[in-house]
Structures are given as C-alpha cells and as structure tokens.
Design goal:
The protein is an all-alpha fold. Helix content is about 75%, strand content about 0%. α1 (about 5-30) packs across α3, α4 crosses α6 and α7 (about 120-140) packs across α8.
Length: about 200
C-alpha cells in the first residue's frame, strides 16, 4: 500500500471514528451539550481532524441526518411502490423501517429528539428530507380511497408510531413490563402494522 493510499485510509478511518462518536454523544446528551474537545477525546482524534473531516459540528450533524434520512427514504421507495395491494406494501414498509430504526437507534434519537427549533438552517435541512417522504406518502399511500389522509398528517404519525419503542425504551425497560410486543422487534412490527391498518379496536 503506497503512502497516499495509507493516508487516505487513515483519514477515512478517523472520519468514521468521529462520526460514530458524534452519533453516540449526540444521542445521549444532545448536540448542544457535546463539545468538540469531548468529541475528539471520544473519537481518539485531535480537534483539527474534526474540522478537517467535517468543517464544523453542525455539518457533522447534517451528515448524521443524511445517513438516517437517506436510509429511511430508500426503504420507502422500495417498499411503498409496486403492484402489491396497499396493506401488503405498508406491512413490508413498517417491518423494514422498524428493523432499520433498531439498527440505527442512535441516528434515530439524534434525528427525532435533537429538533433544533431555533436553528433555521437545521430546520430547513430536515424539511427538505421530510418533503421527499411526504411526496412518497402522497403518491403511494394517501391516494388510496381507504386511506384518504393528508400526507402531512400521516407521515409524522406513522414515523412516530414506528419510532416509539426506541424513543421510550430506556424508561420502559426500567418498568420491567416484560411485554413481548415491546421487546421483540418482529412482534412489535406486527403490532404497529395492526394498529395502523385496523385501529386499536381489532377484536
């Protein structure tokens, strides 16, 4: 491996360490409460490497949002389109999204809990991603005669339902409820699908 390739490999590795550390810290203590020095220590890099790799802490946050939203939208484009009936498409979508949320739990927490209502740039950035999801919902879900719901309502509603297990899990785990529909991902997916498609009064 030549010097340039080695340097590029080290740079990529350091960049990933910073990203991993940022997701972990932002998810647990928030973006604003995470300092660059703490982030550098957690990632095992120097401060200059953070600026070199991402430019700023805000751009690092935007990259985390990109990773989360691009994965979410990819699932939506794959599972909500096609010739299957709406129930089948929604069932596949919900199942895959909940698995994705489980694998990217910290990304989910950063995206949904670090809202930054006072930061116009972050709000606009999230809105650009959200608009893409709303368009998919409008075309593939809300056009159905049975689910004639405004896409601006159904998109955050369904996202919140799917994310609730991960947003509330630290509290629910301490309550020791021992509920299979909460602890098991597959059972949880089926429960959310049933509630969303058929309502709470299924019996």
């Amino acid at each position: 491996m030549n010097t340039a390739v080695k340097k590029n490999h080290r740079g990529h590795k350091s960049r990933q360490k910073i990203l991993d550390a940022a997701v972990k810290l932002f998810a647990r203590q928030g973006f604003d409460r995470t300092g660059l020095r703490q982030l550098a220590n957690e990632a095992g890099v120097n401060l200059a490497m953070i600026n070199y790799s991402f430019g700023s802490k805000k751009k690092l946050l935007m990259e985390i949002l990109d990773i989360f939203f691009s994965g979410y939208l990819k699932i939506a484009r794959t599972e909500l389109t096609g010739d299957d009936d709406l129930d089948t498409r929604l069932e596949k979508f919900i199942s895959r999204v909940i698995c994705f949320f489980s694998e990217r739990k910290d990304y989910l927490l950063v995206t949904l809990t670090d809202l930054h209502h006072d930061d116009v740039e972050i709000l606009e950035y999230k809105a650009l991603w959200g608009q893409q999801m709303i368009q998919i919902m409008e075309q593939e879900v809300c056009g159905s005669s049975r689910l004639n719901i405004a896409p601006k309502l159904i998109t955050p509603l369904l996202t919140s339902m799917m994310a609730s297990r991960f947003l509330f899990s630290p509290v629910m785990e301490r309550m020791k409820i021992g509920d299979a529909e909460f602890s098991d991902i597959e059972a949880y997916s089926k429960a959310i699908t049933g509630i969303f498609l058929q309502g709470i009064n299924r019996g």
